[in-house]
From TrEMBL:
F5/8 type C domain residues: 637-777
Native organism taxonomy: Bacteria, Bacillati, Actinomycetota, Actinomycetes, Kitasatosporales
Keyword entries, A-Z: Glycosidase, Hydrolase
Record-level GO BP terms: carbohydrate derivative metabolic process; carbohydrate metabolic process
Protein name from the UniProt record: Uncharacterized protein
Active site (UniProt): 286 (proton donor)
Family affiliation: Belongs to the glycosyl hydrolase 84 family.
Keyword Hydrolase on entry: yes
PANTHER family (alphabetical): O-GLCNACASE, PROTEIN O-GLCNACASE
Length: 780
């Protein structure tokens, strides 16, 4: 591919006195080639029959949005004589003579969906812009890049003098609506299609698990009203150059060998083809291959098992690909999701798939796990070998439909996918949350990565995603970044999250305690209080009007809780400052206010919920913000005690009533090792316990418990001076599994032992705790 004088250098390094504005997704090649072009009151758009209509309409709308009072669309060679001095924008295929001349040495890449942009400021022929596409999608994407090149000058709008030669690294980019729980509404899906157009995502897979006609009623046609909605959605997708992919998941009840079942499946696909759909998927995930749905399959494929299941599935998929997809003009290759979709183990199932599945069929793969902590080039190449073709990644981020995501919005950036994956994959689709607008943060990054994985930088892409949601408003963008830090946790199905919670807040809290313990207490309070005020004020800024309203609706319970947590933090810091100044009564009043605000924050609920996890407490900076407040309160309560209060558990010795199956990896010592990735787990009875023997007798002000999903519906905290005689100091009945903070009486005696005593289990398993903290101070 020739790109003329341009070179694929980072945008920030473009040789120009005026930096170009950021463009997302990051182009393959962008640089300054001349002066900015002025948006004149009247603008000419030169287009013809080969100009993509959607690109033309969006171009006209953007020009009017950025200062043009009048936009005239004229054919090439029909420009009026009065056009001299007006901004002239040429839009169409790169081989159109007038566009080729205007592009100069900026060449259109010879790749599908490729495009070129060249902006020339005032010169002998006035202000000129050329937008050229390799195909219709390329033209549309050229306009999407131009949309981001508008800059406001002292006397009106201009277009930055950029030259761009660009194309996607991956053919397929977008989302799969594949979560459990309340599906998106029709209006939300229409909005998503517009969003995908903006971020140059070209794929949307319709596969909501709780649409009855997708799975349970797969043989039944959609009702007329639902079919009409789907038709409108197909048209909106096409207008944004998004490939609407219809998925039907028959695996729970299909008889693979039954001709009537196959006829019903193809009739379902035909109805969508008649609406304009040209891409289809048959997911076979989350089903059993240890049983058949009919005796005919036993006769046709043998006893149920891995190999027999693969034979039956391949028989169906090859039939659909060869007799339906291949016979329907314009239809894209069939997509499928294998039953074994999330590992790199070679099995009889995969061996049969790679040996017999039609080479045209796209196979989806989720990585090395259902929610993989990373995806590497080596893993993707391994998956390609297993399935006999490049795989299409179904990335289960930011989906929040499983237990470990209970109460969470997942707002961390798209990350930990290795540069170079474009050489090993046909594409990536992100599985979003039940909350569509909040999902845009991660989907923005996933589209950025899939477009140009070699240049992707999560740290740069994340603020751009927030700016997109904020409509470019700087204050709202910063508020969204504060919220995003508090919702940064990205869980897996296991114990260890693949993205940590609140990294920016954690950094500031660590700096606070370092300064505080070094004696710079006023400076420590001032610094952290400023950020705490930002936390408190972020919800009001986000709700102030600049941020997409859909996001504020999606995030409403989290915004409510964030404001309360922020206020609680400000009050606690003020209490520390008051106590440091000698105002004991004022400090106690502020501390009590903080505790009450914390109570209110933990009482907020996501209700009614969209997620299958039901009504839940919205998690906000948990494990960081709440722990800081406990630590600060302990310092206040134990102000006059030597040491001032700290987590005593790591220096203590853990013991337990039992360990699940006597597994060393679940031993009691893991409950105070300081690692959230390890845990203690008990035997399977209600009266199990775990305790910390402290290094010395101590005044204890609070106990924290970071539960795994096997938690308690009721438990007590007990203390002892000698390990024999025990006193119950608190009884807890938490609503769910999470991080519990148990405050102990301020006048409690010094103790040596602290125990969590189980009363009633939430599950049939035992009790499981990642970390137990004991906050207080040794007494001399």
């Amino acid at each position: 591919m020739a790109v003329g004088v341009l070179s694929p250098v980072p945008q920030a390094e473009a040789a120009s006195p005026t930096p170009l504005p950021p463009v997302s997704p990051t182009p393959q090649s962008i640089g300054r080639v001349g002066n900015d072009a002025v948006v004149t009151d009247r603008v000419l758009v030169v287009a013809d029959a080969r100009t993509d209509a959607a690109a033309r309409d969006r171009l006209v709308a953007e020009l009017k949005r950025h200062g043009a009072d009048r936009v005239d669309v004229v054919a090439p060679g029909r420009e009026p004589a009065a056009a001299v001095g007006l901004l002239t924008v040429r839009l169409g295929p790169g081989d159109r003579p007038d566009i080729a001349a205007a592009l100069g040495d900026t060449a259109v890449p010879g790749r599908a969906e490729g495009y070129a942009v060249r902006v020339a400021g005032s010169g002998g022929e006035g202000h000129r812009i050329a937008l050229a596409g390799k195909d219709a999608a390329g033209q549309f994407y050229a306009v999407q890049t131009l949309r981001q090149l508008f800059v406001r000058g002292d006397d009106g709008w201009k277009v930055a003098g950029a030259g761009v030669a660009d194309f996607p690294s991956m053919p397929l980019r977008g989302t799969i609506e594949g979560f459990y729980g309340t599906p998106w509404t029709h209006a939300e899906r229409l909005d998503q299609m517009d969003f995908y157009g903006d971020v140059k995502a070209n794929t949307y897979v319709y596969a909501p698990k709780d649409d009855p006609y997708h799975r349970g009623k797969w043989r039944e046609p959609y009702p007329a009203d639902k079919l009409a909605e789907l038709g409108e959605l197909v048209r909106r997708a096409a207008a944004n150059h998004v490939r609407f992919t219809f998925a039907v998941s028959p695996g729970e009840s299909i008889c693979y060998s039954d001709a009537a079942h196959r006829k019903d499946l193809k009739a379902k696909l035909q109805a969508m083809y008649d609406l304009g759909t040209r891409a289809f998927s048959v997911p076979l995930d989350d089903i059993s291959y240890t049983r058949w749905n009919c005796e005919g399959d036993r006769a046709a494929y043998g006893e149920p098992g891995r190999q027999a299941a693969a034979r039956a599935q391949v028989d169906l998929l090859n039939d659909v690909q060869r007799t339906f997809v291949a016979t329907h003009p314009g239809a894209q290759p069939l997509q499928m999701v294998p039953t074994e979709y999330g590992d790199l183990t070679d099995t009889a199932y995969k061996q049969t798939m790679r040996a017999t599945l039609d080479p045209a069929v796209e196979v989806m793969w989720t990585g090395t796990d259902v929610v993989p902590p990373s995806i590497t080039d080596q893993q993707a190449e391994g998956a390609a070998r297993l399935f006999g073709r490049k795989v299409f990644v179904w990335d289960n981020y930011p989906v929040n439909d499983f237990g470990n995501t209970r109460g969470r919005l997942l707002l961390a950036p798209y990350d930990k996918r290795e540069a170079g994956l474009s050489a090993h994959l046909t594409g990536i689709v992100a599985n979003p949350m039940n909350q569509p607008y909040a999902s845009k943060v991660a989907v923005f990054g996933a589209a950025d990565f899939a477009w140009n994985d070699a240049a992707y930088d999560a740290r740069a892409s994340w603020p751009r995603a927030m700016a997109y949601l904020a409509g470019g408003d700087r204050e709202a963008t910063e508020a969204l970044l504060v919220l995003g830090d508090l919702e940064h946790m990205a869980p897996t199905f296991g114990a260890t999250p693949w993205q940590e919670q609140a990294p920016e807040l954690a950094r500031r809290v660590a700096r606070f305690w370092t300064s505080w313990d070094a004696g710079a207490r006023a400076e420590a309070v001032t610094s952290l209080r400023g950020y705490a005020k930002r936390i408190e004020q972020a919800p009001a800024v986000i709700r102030g009007g600049s941020v997409e309203r859909g996001f504020t609706v999606d995030a409403a319970p989290w915004l409510d809780a964030t404001e309360l947590w922020g206020r609680a933090t400000v009050r606690m810091l003020d209490a520390l400052a008051a106590r440091q100044a000698g105002d004991r009564d004022g400090a106690e009043e502020l501390r009590a206010e903080s505790v009450e605000l914390q109570r209110q924050a933990t009482a907020v609920r996501v209700d009614p919920p969209r997620n299958s996890w039901g009504s839940a407490q919205p998690r906000v900076g948990d494990g960081v913000l709440d722990v800081f407040l406990v630590q600060a309160e302990v310092r206040l309560q134990l102000w006059d005690v030597a040491g001032g209060g700290e987590n005593l558990a790591p220096k203590g010795t853990a013991a337990a009533s039992s360990v699940e199956q006597n597994l060393d990896r679940l031993a009691a010592r893991h409950v105070n090792d300081g690692l959230m990735g390890t845990r203690w787990a008990s035997g399977y009875t209600d009266d199990e316990w775990v305790q910390i023997e402290l290094a010395a007798p101590s005044k204890v002000a609070a106990v924290t418990l970071a539960w795994e999903s096997a938690c308690a519906t009721e438990y007590t905290i007990r203390t002892s001076v000698n390990g024999t005689d025990w006193k119950t100091v608190a009884t807890q009945r938490p609503e769910g599994c999470g991080n519990d903070v148990v405050r102990l009486p301020a006048d409690a005696e010094a103790v040596r032992y602290v125990r969590m005593q189980g009363v009633d289990r939430r599950t049939t398993w035992g009790y499981s705790i990642h970390e137990m903290g004991v906050y207080g101070a040794p007494v001399s």
